[in-house]
């Protein structure tokens, strides 16, 4: 299997050909209306937001965005910069939101953003986007996304390699015992086969994402990225009819595994089952 590059297709075709069969794809024209495509660059962020305090994942302290952007110039494959990632645009940096409007049509059908779920639960905002800024060589741990959400990640600037593994290969990817969504590999691009021998059997799909392109990563697919040139990306996760039941099961499973079993979990499962039925009926009423 390869990851195809596809131009303009209708939302219905996107769902039928990729979302429902859970097939990764790159869409080349999904975000062409975003003003960010003509404004955002590392230099623009430095000039416009340079004094803003930011914190990279895993780093101890804060730095200014200007210092972070300056560091990208020295980021290499051998010695990559830390990753400034998963910044919640709608809740933490709402001034950026107009530049990524209109909302991408392919991620609109997001049942997590519907009114049947309380505000702020299970995510901090409806239609949440996250921002990623990285330098050459920077990589993200190999993982699959929380709650079996589908992921849709767009490159606004620069180039990034995406490497994906199907859900059935989880055993070859050595999930962590304490946090089973993330692999134990210290660096997923330089895996020690002496320590992790079964990884040799894994069969990745790899694709380089360029400016203006978006990759759809179906729920449960493991993925990692390595930045090829200074890069700015925006992610959007969504749950729709195709993965609602997986989402509800996984959210409850994760609560049991990581949050400690509580009396609330069966109630949440029941509520999500009813919400799913309501959303499905609403869709049928709209369609017929
Ligand atoms: O863009 C990236 O580097 C990683 C994004 C990602 O893995 C995710 O949003 O799940």
Automatic annotation (TrEMBL):
InterPro entries named among the record's database cross-references: Cupin_8 (IPR041667), JmjC_dom (IPR003347), JMJD6_ArgDemeth/LysHydrox (IPR050910)
Pfam families with a match to the protein in the record: Cupin_8
Gene3D superfamilies hit by this protein: Cupin
Residues annotated as domain JmjC: 106-255
Domain of life of the source: Bacteria
Organism: Pseudomarimonas salicorniae
Protein name: Cupin-like domain-containing protein
């Amino acid at each position: 299997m390869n990851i195809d590059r596809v131009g303009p297709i209708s939302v219905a075709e996107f769902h039928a050909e990729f979302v429902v069969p859970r097939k990764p794809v790159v869409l080349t024209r999904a975000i062409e209306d975003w003003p960010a495509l003509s404004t955002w660059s590392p230099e623009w962020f430095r000039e416009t937001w340079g004094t803003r305090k930011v914190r990279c994942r895993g780093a101890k302290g804060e730095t200014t965005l200007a210092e972070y952007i300056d560091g990208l110039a020295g980021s290499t494959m051998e010695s990559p910069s830390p990753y400034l990632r998963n910044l919640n645009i709608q809740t933490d940096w709402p001034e950026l939101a107009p530049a990524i409007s209109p909302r991408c049509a392919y991620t609109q059908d997001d049942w997590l953003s519907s009114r049947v779920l309380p505000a702020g639960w299970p995510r901090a905002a409806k239609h949440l986007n996250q921002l990623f800024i990285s330098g050459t060589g920077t990589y993200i741990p190999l993982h699959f996304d929380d709650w079996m959400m589908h992921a849709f990640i767009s490159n606004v600037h620069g180039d990034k390699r995406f490497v994906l593994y199907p859900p059935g290969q989880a055993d070859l990817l050595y999930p962590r015992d304490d946090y089973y969504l993330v692999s134990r590999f210290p660096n997923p691009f330089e895996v020690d086969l002496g320590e992790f021998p079964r990884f040799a059997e894994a069969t990745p799909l790899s694709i380089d994402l360029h400016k203006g392109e978006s990759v759809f990563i179906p729920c449960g697919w493991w993925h990692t990225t390595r930045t090829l040139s200074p890069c700015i990306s925006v992610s959007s996760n969504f749950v729709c009819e195709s993965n609602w039941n997986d989402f509800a099961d996984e959210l409850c499973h994760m609560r049991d595994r990581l949050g400690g079993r509580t009396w609330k979990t069966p109630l949440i499962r029941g509520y999500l089952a009813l919400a799913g039925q309501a959303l499905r009926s609403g869709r049928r009423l709209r369609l017929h």
